[in-house]
Amino acid sequence: QVQVVGSGGGLVQAGGSLRLSCAASGSNVRILDTDWYRQTPGEQRELVARIPTSGTAIYADSVKGRFTISRDDFKNTVYLQMNTLYLGETGVYFCYIHGIWRPGDSYTTFDAWGQGTLVTVAS
């Protein structure tokens, strides 16, 4: 099966930076599209950034100019560089990956979530 493991969260002061990672592993995994979501206390999960296989990344208005989504297809890893973090951005950040893999003789698609990584922005 495909496993997706997120990492990189932690405690950071307001105005600081963090880089989150999400790695997919499995037989002949290839990432197609990937998203980063976050869930802040009392709020619903929201889309932060998306990067398709081909095309331009898109961002929530609240993070434009501060966050950057990227991917390393050789490592099957996606990243979210977060700069100038605000106090209200404390929450759990999740990656979502849509891709293909080959568990047997042929490729099939998969959709998988990382387990979430906690980001705490302190004053």
From the alpha carbons, calculate the radius of gyration and give it in angstroms.
15 Å
Query: Portion of residues in helices?
Result: under 10%
- Number of E-type strands: 11
Low-confidence stretches: none
Number of separate helices: 0
CA(first)-CA(last) distance: 41 Å
β content, as a range?
Answer: over 45%
Main sheet specs: 7 strands, mixed
Shape: elongated
Provide the fold topology:
Layout: E1 3-7, E2 10-13, E3 18-25, E4 30-39, E5 46-51, E6 58-59, E7 67-72, E8 77-82, E9 91-101, E10 108-113, E11 117-122
Parallel strand pairs: 2-11
Antiparallel strand pairs: 1-3, 3-8, 4-5, 4-9, 5-6, 7-8, 9-10, 9-11
Report on this model:
- There is one protein chain.
- This protein is mainly β.
- The chain is built from no helices and 11 strands.
- Strands 2, 4, 5, 6, 9, 10 and 11 form a 7-stranded mixed β-sheet that branches.
- The mean pLDDT is 95.
Which descriptors apply to this entry?
123 residues; mainly beta; 11 strands; elongated
Quick synopsis:
With 123 residues, the protein is mainly beta.
